[in-house]
Amino acid sequence: MTETVCVVGLGYVGLPLAIEFDRVGKSVIGYDVDSEKVSELSSGTDPTGDVTDEGVAASDVFFTTDPAQLSDADFVIVTVPTPVDSMENPDLQFVESAAETVGKYISPGTTVVLESTVYPGATESVLVPALESESGYTVGEDIFVGYSPERASPGDTGRGVRDVVKVVGANDERVRDELAELYGSIVDAGIHRAPDIETAEASKVIENVQRDMNIALVNELAIACDHMGLTTEDVLEAAGTKWNFHDGYSPGFVGGHCIPVDPFYLTYRSKREGFSPKLVLQAREINEYVPVHAARKTVKTINDSGRVLQDTRLLVLGLAYKPGVGDIRSSEVGTMIEKLDEFDIDCVGYDPHADPDASREVFGIDVTETVDFEAYDGVVVATAHDEFAAYDLEAMAAGLGSDPVMVDVADVFDADEAAAHGFHYAQL
User: Fold this and answer.
1) What are the Cα distances from residue 229, in Å, to 223, 321, 425, 427?
2) Using one digit for the tens of pLDDT, what is the confidence trace for 191-224?
């Protein structure tokens, strides 16, 4: 008998998951509360950009806004956002709401899997009570629960669902094995069985905390090198010649929905247990300061070029939070633009992946849909989109005119080559 999998939440995590389960022959229900999104998916359009229109159109996934369809599922996989609130505390309202909806329609014997990033203990303290309250069933007897953290990397085509080891956690061996078999049907990279739900929850926040801290280290080193008059890239290249130096990290912005958020999920639970992880919080402070540092570097570079700040017009290349995607939510580029605005520097944005209208609303600046360097005095390269790396420096400099400014936050261009073409060049 064909198993039925219902994926709740059809964003950059849930949609690829639904498509993969469909690929291996599962009966798949894709549920979302966003009627516009469901309408697009039903017509064969991929609003996330991660699966492609062709991939959606070729699938047999049943997309719906009708929660009653959940009653047919053997497995319900919850992939909803888990942001932080204005006080940087975990905001689990979407998890709780999804659990309540699932609880109203769940059938006995169904296993619910949470994939959303949460603090250790949240599955059992938030999801389970909501499920039991709405369903009247008992978890572990009538219905079952597990946790398997999403590891999606939007825009990274080489690391899709099939390519990344899947962690599965449950508090009993039967459910753990059940989840390993379910995910094993779509994941080629292998399955890691965590001994319990909390271990699986902690593993997700810690893997992103580690990345946040590593980037914070090179960001702080970059700021220190800048004060000492050293080129960070050259210093890291030299240091990287030692066998035990951990390379692969470059200074830059840390935006998005995961890395800037997940440390607060770890520290929230840890503080409740009596310990405040200072290093984790300091890393966040450093990374949150980098857009301010980038703005100050930009101001200094403009001043060094002999231009008047208030008469300078800059083209900000890249508004998305990372290369290869159009997602502008939680992009640190906005903080940099706000700081530049304090100096009355006129900024215009351009991003070949981001929606122009949404960008205008989010960043509060003009956004162009075509690039004409003659209209600007300089550029700030904020996101390392491949399209920008293909730009010809000579043509850029000629268009910008005399004493062109380039602040290469994303480290896309070669410093010596830029200088050779007359740029007043700076990088982090």
Assistant:
1) 10, 28, 14, 12
2) 999 999 999 999 999 999 999 999 999 999 999 9
258 part of the active site: yes
Q: What is the pLDDT of residue 135?
A: 97
- The pTM of this model reads 0.93
Helix/strand/coil (H/E/C) assignment for every residue in 321-372: CCCCCCCCCCCCHHHHHHHHHCCCCEEEEECCCCCHHHHHHHHCCEECCCCC
pLDDT tens for 286-330 read: 999 999 999 999 999 999 999 999 999 999 999 999 999 999 989
Identified catalytic residue from 6, 225, 258, 347:
258
Cα 341 from chain centre: 26
Q: Which amino acid is at 145?
A: V
Per the rule left: phi > 0, alpha: psi between -120 and 50, beta: everything else, 408 is beta
Assign a CATH topology to domain 4-195.
Answer: Rossmann fold (3.40.50)
What residues does each domain of the chain span? 4-195, 197-428
CATH architecture label of 197-428: 3-Layer(aba) Sandwich (3.40)
Residues in CB range of 168: below 8 A, 6 or more apart = 146, 147, 148, 176, 179, 180, 183, 191, 192, 193, 194, 200
For helices 197-228 and 262-272, the axis angle rounded to 10 degrees is 120
Burial label, 158 (beta-carbon count in 10 A; 0-12, 13-18, 19+): exposed
